UniProtKB/TrEMBL annotation:
Superkingdom, taxonomy of origin: Bacteria
Residue ranges, annotated region (Disordered): 49-80
Signal peptide start and end residues: 1-24
Name of the protein this chain belongs to: Serine protease
PROSITE patterns the record matches: PROKAR_LIPOPROTEIN (PS51257)
SUPFAM superfamilies: Trypsin-like serine proteases (SSF50494)
Residue stretches spanning the membrane: none
UniProt-listed InterPro entries: Glutamyl_endopeptidase, Peptidase_S1_PA, Peptidase_S1_PA_chymotrypsin
Signal found in the keyword field: yes
Keywords: Signal
Keyword Signal: yes
Length: 334
């Protein structure tokens, strides 16, 4: 890419970011999702500059609602064994632009019931694609499966080539859906809207006829209506924590038996586990053993406290299932 082309790409990206400051239209309805491809924008260097957009909730969040279980003991996050495409192929990093600059979350490639074996769907947190109440869609949203596949850090990461950092390429979000409750109530710093903090993307790669699932070889099943925290076993959570003491370059996981966290008494209760992953892990998949015996996605990371001792994620019910179906239905027209 020439210097002139790079400058043009960054100018285009800046305009798209500034456009993202606007909120919903005058009637309060969700504005249309728009995420045009900007060739050459997400270079390896720019990915490395992206920072977590998460805002931690206050310690003690949910303690006075009456349905919150005692705070869990922190579970130290464990590094995921490289290579990631052999051990956690469905996981990846989500990159996007906010008005504050390039940002990161985590995401999971999930099955598409309408296209068995050919899914292009990615599950993540709502706050990783939309700013919530009073905000709008973020821009230049891409998914990078098995990011930093070899688990490199330090000097080795800085000098690695693109095939090692993005082994399956960069996939642009062509469509996205978030819960209307997130758009109306989403306030990550207060936990507002967190029971509905989920999103589904349909991603594509330019000049790539194969789907995401065909390319990486896997996609996770989604288990809607999984039991509550009192009726489900251990959960395993994956993500790319990007705040200290982590740097966002490597994949980590935690495993714990979930408890309940209630933000508002009249809203659904979240799952909560002990985990020391920090901002940047938001959107990462939560997995539990399904009745069929395999692991299935049951939630995604939504919020965590200032002290980074636990994570919480929404329980996926019928509204989440309908959102998933809408993206699946529209994927066929992309």
């Amino acid at each position: 890419m020439t210097r002139r082309t790079r400058v043009a790409a960054y100018v285009t990206a800046l305009l798209l970011v500034l456009a993202g400051v606007a909120g919903c239209d005058s009637s309060g309805r969700l504005s249309a999702f728009s995420n045009p491809v900007v060739e050459g924008l997400w270079t390896i260097q720019r990915m490395a500059q992206a920072r977590s957009a998460d805002t931690r909730v206050p310690n003690g969040t949910g303690e006075n609602t009456g349905t919150t279980d005692p705070e869990p003991d922190p579970v130290p996050a464990q590094p995921q064994k490289a290579t990631y495409h052999d051990n956690a192929a469905v996981m990846g990093k989500l990159f996007f632009d906010t008005p504050d600059g390039p940002s990161v979350c985590s995401g999971t490639a999930v099955e598409d019931p309408a296209r068995p074996g050919r899914s292009g769907l990615v599950w993540t947190a709502g706050h990783c694609v939309h700013a919530g109440a009073g905000g709008d869609w973020f821009r230049n949203i891409v998914f990078v499966p098995s990011y930093n596949n070899l688990g490199l850090d330090g000097t080795a990461r800085q000098t690695a080539d693109e095939d090692r950092i993005a082994p399956f390429g960069t996939w642009w979000a062509a469509r996205s859906e978030v819960a209307p409750e997130w758009v109306a109530e989403g306030k990550p710093s207060e936990g507002g809207g967190s029971p509905f903090d989920y999103a589904v993307l349909h991603v594509q790669r330019q000049a790539q006829p194969a789907s995401l699932q065909e390319t990486i070889g896997q996609a996770a099943p989604v288990w809607f209506g999984a039991p509550s925290a009192t009726g489900i076993g251990d959960m395993a959570v994956w993500g790319y924590p990007a705040e200290s003491p982590f740097d966002g370059e490597r994949m980590f996981s935690c495993q714990d038996r979930p408890g309940r966290l209630s933000i508002r008494p009249e809203q659904p209760v979240l799952y909560r586990i002990g985990c020391t992953m920090t901002g940047g892990s938001s959107g990462g998949g939560w997995f539990a053993r399904s009745p069929g015996g395999g692991l299935a996605l049951v939630s995604n990371t939504s919020i965590g406290p200032t002290e980074n001792t636990w994570l919480a994620g929404p329980r996926l019910g019928e509204s989440a299932r309908e959102l998933y179906r809408r993206v699946s239905d529209k994927a066929g027209s992309s």
